[in-house]
Amino acid sequence: MNAPATPPGAGPADVSSARTGPARTGPARTGPVRVGVLVPLSRPGWTEAGRHLLAGLELAVREVNDAGGIGGRPLEPVVRDTAADPRGAAAAVDELAGLGVAAVAGEYHSVVARAAAARADALGLPFLCSSAVLDALTGRPTPWVARIAPPQSRGWRVYADFLLGAGHSRVAVVAEPSVYWESGTRVLREYLAPRGGTVIGLDAHAHAPTAVCDELAGSGATALLLLVGQPDPAVPIVRALRRDRRLAGVMAGAPAGQPEFAGWAGLLGGDGAGIPFLRYLPQRLGPLGAHVGKALRERLGEEPSFVAFEGYDTIAVLAEAMRSHGVDRERIAASWPHLAVEGTRGQIRFSRAPGTGIWQGERMPVQVVDRDPEEPGRFRILHTG
């Protein structure tokens, strides 16, 4: 268990002592309050997720400013495209710090968020991560980093519990090399093994889609989990699986959430239905969630994903931190354990989660969902945790 770098109730002086990097220009005392925004908007980033994340962030900024901003000062987002590049994200954090942002928000890809978090920690710059779930976003405990999304270990254990409940104790995973996919596979193995389950690993780079099917046919697995990028190689693997008569009874799964987005259904149609994935939404949205969902639907021209709601909640939290504690970076970082913010999916509070080293949003809802094979545009809730 990682010990907290800053105990609950610590003030700004405690936070400033954790800074290890060079000093940077702090937020201005007048004019707009600038917030850095990191999102993947170009390939090889998952651009569809980036578009949804940015839509939620920008909607919340607009509503904060319509309500009077931060003490009468408008909130101004300074957006940087990470393109799923960890080094580019770290450079963007440096640039944003020099531009005087009060905090940095956003990011979807875990390996990118990890690089951004490490740089923010070194610079003494608050970073509120929206969507990346890798448990260890930093190599050490830090007071500067907080996260809205639940950690991967929690979500993927819920998914493993769903697999067992659905009768899948022998599970194959086809994975690309990545810290994120390796971490997810480890969570599945550690959860399933004591319960009689087995995880069989297949290398997506070493096997063409048809070869994946050949390996799967001889494995005895009843489920194949896609721990790979979207659209390639996820889409070709699904197509090969659906067309292989030997595997008619094998369930495809995508815990990372690829089927959540409209692009998945557009590429696969009915073949993309019936593939369970993780989604971080409650069974029913409250008044704020319903309002935000309607506004996001109009902004995006399609059904908003959980990623869009995470973006909105990120700005809602930062706005409350700045209203209640001020726009100084140290005070924002010191505010994490004291916040109680009404978000789109329930109240948001932060605590120290074992093994993460950061301030973690508590009790975020977790669902296992799929697209209804009878109506691929409709989602079915299969399991909650």
Automatic annotation (TrEMBL):
InterPro entries: BCAA_transport, Leu-bd, Peripla_BP_I. SUPFAM superfamilies: Periplasmic binding protein-like I. This is Amino acid ABC transporter substrate-binding protein. Residues 32-356 form the Leucine-binding protein domain. Keywords: Signal. Pfam families: Peripla_BP_6. Belongs to the leucine-binding protein family. It comes from Streptomyces nitrosporeus.
